[in-house]
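User: Here's a chain of 157 residues. Predict its fold as tokens.
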Amino acid sequence: MNAAERTVDGLNAERDRRKDLEGLKEELAQRAAKFLGDGRSKPGGMGYSQIRNLVSLTQTASSVLEIEAFIDYQMGRDNDYKSWRCSVGDRPFGEALKDEIEAIEELALKKRKDDRKFVLLCLTYYFGYLAWRAKYLEYAGSKKTGKEGSGRRGRRR
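Assistant: Prediction complete.
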């Protein structure tokens, strides 16, 4: 197989991944909303950017193990139990998130068997939806406490 054929095969595989992802986007978004739903929100000491970092990490990771290692690292750093080790429900946030990663990995592999790139693509979207949800929860929390920002950011005219 020459270079041109490999390029075409790579482009076809990427197109097929994107097509299969379209069928999972709604489920990924629903999972993110449920994960940070009424019964479980992000820990108070965790900012939107910490979750957003998972998107960047997943875009450059070569395996799910890298993402889980990052979460383990963050849990190890959280000596105050305010973010990654903070209990949400009956588990630390980081452990619950690793369970969610495992579930999404299974979901992706059902759709595209043995395609690790597809797993990472699904996780990228999931973490993006999770970050959006976390940002909304920050807004909703500030609205309840009356601590909405007085600056120009976020204001509509």
